[in-house]
Design goal:
mainly alpha; globular; Helix Hairpins; 0% strand
């Protein structure tokens, strides 16, 4: 259920700070958001897939922790990222 490499490279290119940036908060949050959206669509079809549901909840928690840290360290970039990804600012 991982992202394919083309989609992953596209997300990294869009949100990277520099050319070889793959680990910044923006990139990590964007990649987690894409995986969360993919798993959400999967669970709409396969409602009894509880293993994937647990994985989804772990990803949501990880993204939430990253967003909390990013908001604390760089609020302007955080707000820009939230609007670009169209996710709620509930932290």
């Amino acid at each position: 259920m991982a992202l394919d490499s083309a989609k992953k490279n596209e997300i990294i290119a869009k949100f990277a700070r520099t050319e070889n940036d793959t680990g910044s908060c923006e990139v990590q949050i964007a990649l987690l958001t894409a995986r969360i959206a993919q798993l959400t669509e999967h669970l709409k079809t396969f409602k009894k897939d509880h293993a994937s549901r647990v994985g989804l909840l772990k990803l949501v928690g990880q993204r939430r922790r990253l967003m909390k840290y990013f908001k604390k360290t760089n609020k302007d970039a955080y707000l820009k990222l939230v609007t670009a990804l169209d996710i709620r600012d509930n932290i």
